[in-house]
Specification:
It is a multi-pass membrane protein. The chain has seven helices and no strands. The chain is mostly helical. The two termini are about 20 Å apart.
């Protein structure tokens, strides 16, 4: 709803800031209940982000390619799991903080995504709909 009202850019940025806060917060959790609460909120934020990203990616995409492009978006989860495994092997057993640096490090990619998205204009479909 926010992306339809205010554009795709700013809800994406706000949601990624929420991602960063929750990802960093996960690394500072002291109990299992705190960890579960933080990750549950992270999952809600991920759901909010996915719709925005899918709309941004598919709006200006040719109709014939939308199925393939949406499939590529879904593969992002599998690729993310592979990256998480690589970074877990590199960070978890090599630092005194254990599993926590994995989440602290995970807060970095959204910063890059925010910077990249701020440089891009709104989609043509959204601009036309606003008119």
């Amino acid at each position: 709803v926010a992306a339809d009202r205010y554009g795709r850019k700013w809800p994406f940025v706000v949601n990624n800031i929420l991602f960063i806060v929750l990802e960093l917060g996960t690394g500072f959790c002291q109990t299992y209940n705190q960890f579960l609460a933080c990750r549950a909120l992270f999952g809600i934020a991920m759901g909010g982000l996915y719709g925005n990203v899918a709309a941004t990616a598919l709006e200006d995409c040719p109709e014939a390619a939308r199925g393939i492009v949406s499939g590529m978006l879904q593969q992002g989860y599998a690729f993310g799991y592979l990256l998480a495994t690589v970074f877990a092997r590199a960070l978890v057993d090599t630092t005194k903080h254990g599993w926590r640096p994995l989440f602290w490090f995970g807060a970095c990619p959204p910063i890059l995504l925010i910077a990249f998205r701020l440089c891009l204009p709104e989609t043509q479909s959204f601009i036309e709909r606003q008119r």
